[in-house]
Amino acid sequence: MSGPDAAGDRTARDEASVDLVVAGAGGGLAGALAAAQAGLSVLVVDPDAHFLRGNNTSMSTAMIPGAGSRWQREAGVEDGPQRFLADIEAKTHGTADPALAAALARISAPLVEWLADGVGLPLGLVRDFSYPGHSADRLHTVEGRHGSTLLRHLHERVRASSRADLLTPARLVDVTRDAAGRVDGAVVEDPGGHRETVSTRAVLLATGGHGADRERVARYLPGIAAADYYGGQFARGDGLDIGLAHGGRAAYLDAYQGHAALARRSRTLVGWATVMHGAVMVDAGGRRFGDETSGYSEYAAALAQQPGARGWIVLDGRIRDLCLPFTDFRQTVEAGCLTWADDVEELAARTGCAAAALDEALSGQAAVATGVAARDRFGRTFFEEPLRPPYAAVEVIPALFHTQGGLVVDGHARVLGGDGTPVDGLFASGGAAHGISGHGADGYLAGNGLLPALGLAWQAATTLSTTAAPTATAPPVAVADPPTAAAETARTAPTVPDAR
To answer: What is a single Pfam family found in this protein's UniProt entry (predicted)?
Structure first.
């Protein structure tokens, strides 16, 4: 089997036998690069010929946590893995897998430094605002703050490597294992249905989650099932299915990242930086309905419960200017999604909101921003400045961005069976792995998507390339699937007590 990559000008060099097959050209490219740098041969396959603009990595804001990085030290930010781990525990109310969370917190700074030094990614520390749940400025990103820049850089490095090849469109449909249970092949299918088995030492499942599978979303994530899906169309649970079929087990299938700031008109991301700089969200009638700084993921479910499942983010010119560094926000502005007005009455008339409700929302914001009140009636304690006319409003709808549950893995990205024994040669990362966001939507921290996507892929390559890779059996992970996940896990693993 051979075929062109996304650029259409290169074919796979020789996919008959490689050290590693990476299924998924998103965060999995970090694993491909790390493996190639270690001298391994790599084949990356992806079913999406347009993955550079169509997968979850490319659609992200490219925020990567790095607790204790050199950028933080240079900026005088005190941080480290333990502080990051404490933030994860607090945001997830102690429900995240502590072993995986600790492992990812520990490698977060080395990961961003490798991306800069080993891959040449031009990263910088985000200092202009803080995302909910992070007690220190630890998010690193690229200019434009958009995942497409990150992914294109990784893709260019893969294309330049003599040890890595990319085959698209091509989908991993299964793995094969030898008599000892070790992975020894990857079954790859082209769009015409032709299948070929690629001989390999290992497979990394970097296929994303299952957000594009509407039936599975309805089963595991009923609270967000009616919302728009804003993620990769090929995130259909392929990695989850393959892992389960080969003895793996699943956990946290009810976990997801939602977002309450998708512009209704353009389906572009408005972004939560608007809120963190002082904007408020109101429902279709102009009434606020909670503390927006609790987090954009859980606020998606809150917005979904409002009349018509829509609302407005109200901001001003200062906030607009502060958010322009985000490519997504600029696209929203350029699409004409901001409705401007010189006063509250005009804004109410232009949005269909009640003027009294809007006035109450802005008065409450101003009271906290000026220090007249310590908190508003929803418990929000911080606004940078009062909103000043002219005001702007952008209509938003809730969205599901990606799922956060999947195959149980250890800190080396190895897929674990029901007894905690690794499935030899099978790794998972990103949405294919069980993640560190706990249950539901409210455990999601900014960067919880890219850190497991890039970090676990990097760990998989490191584990495979290290001759002294750990081989000891890992204990079963003390995590639980939601009750609705029992049908998927019963095939391969005993019931795990609910840890919620």
So the answer is: FAD_binding_2
pLDDT in tens, 394-444: 999 999 999 999 999 999 999 999 899 999 999 999 999 999 999 999 999
Residues 417 and 383 in one domain: no
Query: Which ranges constitute the DSSP H helices of 92-185?
Result: 98-117, 147-160
Token pair, residue 288, equals: 């606020």
What's 436's domain CATH number? 3.50.50.60
Q: What is the DSSP string of 261-278?
A: EEETTT--B--THHHHTT
User: Which range marks the domain in which residue 390 is found?
Assistant: 258-400
| Number of other residues whose CB lies within 10 A of the CB of residue 73 | 12
DSSP single-letter state for residue 481: -
Of the residues 347, 368, 400, the one at which a domain ends: 400
Number of domains within the chain: 2
Contacts of 122 (CB under 8 A, 6+ apart): 116, 142, 143
- Helix and strand element counts for the chain (H, E): 17, 19
Residues 161 and 276 in one domain: no
Closest CA to 201 of 214, 187, 188, 184: 184
What are 397's two structure tokens? Answer: 């709808």
Return phi, psi of residue 414, to 5°: -80, 135
Q: Is 170 helix (H, G, I), strand (E, B) or coil?
A: coil
> Contact 193/71 with Cβ under 8 angstroms?
no
Encode 39-69: b = buried (16+ Cβ within 10 Å), e = exposed. Answer: ebbbbbbbbbbebbebbbbbbbbbbbbbbbb
Angle between helices 28-37 and 456-465 (to 10 degrees): 30
Q: Are residues 182 and 124 in the same domain?
A: yes
pLDDT at residue 207, rounded to an integer: 97
The reply to whether 263 and 217 lie within a common domain is no
Give me the amino acid identity at 338. Answer: L
If asked whether residues 116 and 250 sit together in one domain, one would say: yes
Helix crossing, 98-117 with 456-465: angle to 10°?
Answer: 80
Task: Give Cα separations from 210 to 49, 105, 491 (angstroms).
Answer: 19, 25, 19
Residues 71 and 150 in one domain: yes
What are 122's two structure tokens? 């031009």
| 237 and 180 belong to one structural domain | yes
**13 compared with 193, residue with greater pLDDT:** 193
Q: Which residue is it, tokens 């990559």?
A: 5
Residue 292 gets which letter from DSSP? G
